[in-house]
Amino acid sequence: MFHLREVVNLKDERIFLKMVDNIYRYEKNWVRPLDDEIIKIFNKEKNRRFRTGEAIRWIIFDTEKNPVGRIAAFYDKIGLNDWQQPTGGVGFFESINDQNVANLLFDTAKSWLEKKGLEAMDGPVNFGNRDYFWGCLKAGFHQPIFNMPYNPAYYNELFENYGFRNYFDQFTYRLTLDSALLNPILKLKSQRLKRDQKLRITNYDKNSGDQIASDFSEVFNKAWARFPGVEPIEVTQAKALFYSLKPILDERLVILAHYANQPIGFFIMIPDINQLITRNNGKMSWFNKIKLILDLKVLKKCNRVIGLIFGVIPEFQGKGIEAGLAMKFAENTEERHFPYSLLEMNWIGDFNPTMMKLVELIGGEIYKTHVTYRYLFNRTKPFHRAPIVNSNQ
Q1: 10 Å Cβ neighbour count for 112?
Q2: 88 with 117: CB under 8 angstroms?
Q3: pTM
Q4: Could you identify which of 126, 247, 313, 335 might form a hypothetical disulfide with 133, taking C-beta atoms 3.0 to 4.6 angstroms apart as the criterion?
Q5: What's the pLDDT score for residue 390?
């Protein structure tokens, strides 16, 4: 028999966080996520999703009171009309290899979501932005990049045996920077762009203050917020994002495009600090923070970059701006003392073939595949995969 308990206090939260150590004890490529990154997702003061939604967490124990599984369930009223039916989410799922444990966790989450008026659930997903803690790893069990899931291979069976179906695949593309981004077609398009004096493609200037936050939110909301499940971002949120990234930002990894001083596109990357926190055991003490900055900025121990987000506003898509952003980064990689040799482009959905073709054009190859599953509560209702979109991200 198993016993289920809701997370209601700090002691429960510590168990919720620490139980992963048992699951991944022998997984050599796993990097434990930072506890603070997960804690803030369930903090009502820090996660704006609580303004229009709810979240709940449970832990499951065996007869000897050992934690053997966990799950979170959540929903956000904003954006529900974008789905084929009101759809909630389950995430931060962990379980021993036991279908009974997984079924109890899924049943509990389903029951709670049904009572809240939801008709389906996606998982494993995040109570927040898609670029973090999203998807079940199905292929490419390499070291995860920062804040992206890594899980045992049997997790896919636990989801599918319960009745979840593949809603979409999300790919992580990998390319080596010594040979990437040098496609002749991109070079030609980039050279044509240089003739237009109204167009500027530049690196981020750390002395520009909060202007990047304003530019980023404007482009993001035009290029991304119209996609189902993606909420608009406020300037204050963008400021908070860049403030949080400031200690690790490299100006050469943030490329901006403006036309007649209007922001029209961006290519934002960060160093993958997962290479540097493998022994932190989920903690970021002051000592660990100092060591991180030393390893990153002075010793240059990080050679992998994460492509966080790539976006061009609709009216400039297909006009070569994407090529200009890519070629600007290619120029940056040729600078002396550029320490990065690998780029992983994260979160490219199979529903976006245009973006897939672009990344393949610059030399990217699929390196990892995560699955976003969907479970319809009405088992007689037809299941549909995510619809294909034809615009660049």
Answers
A1: 20
A2: no
A3: 0.91
A4: 126
A5: 61
